[in-house]
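Re: beginner question about structure tokens

> Can someone show what the tokenized structure looks like for a real chain? I only ever see the sequence side.

Sure, here's an example I had lying around. Input first:
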Amino acid sequence: MFTPDPDKLLEAIAEALQTMAFVTIEPLTEPVPAGERLCIIQTFSGPVRGQFQLDAPRALGALIAANLLASEPDAPEAQAKAEDALREVTNVTAGLMLRSLCGPEQMPQMTVPIVTTALGRDGPGTTGCHVSLSAESQPVTVTLRMCA
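And the corresponding structure tokens:
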């Protein structure tokens, strides 16, 4: 049985954000405020199956895109790439997490991350973990759900 570990999930999102997007993380000290947030969901199947979810403000996606494009977060090109940037962070984080959970020889197949406004929900037979953090002062929640 594969058991999700919140510490490993935190390590995976920290590595993805810091290495690929030059974004530092800190503990989240305030409740997640209301506002325009994007929910990125990526499912996986194989030796393990489930769903990986990243919930973050569009502003974080624009900041990540700006870092990669060497521009400013309010630049039109960074704004246009905000969703893609968050999808890529989701994909990299999910890959890192699943590799640490399953090992390279049992790596599940992952779908392309999708952007939605609906948050995923735990269902019967689901185990998981989640972490909340601040990435450049933007609240982020990352959730891993695994089906039995």
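Each token stands for a local structural state, so reading them left to right follows the chain. Residues 6-25+37-147 form a domain with the Chemotaxis protein chec fold (CATH 3.40.1550.10).
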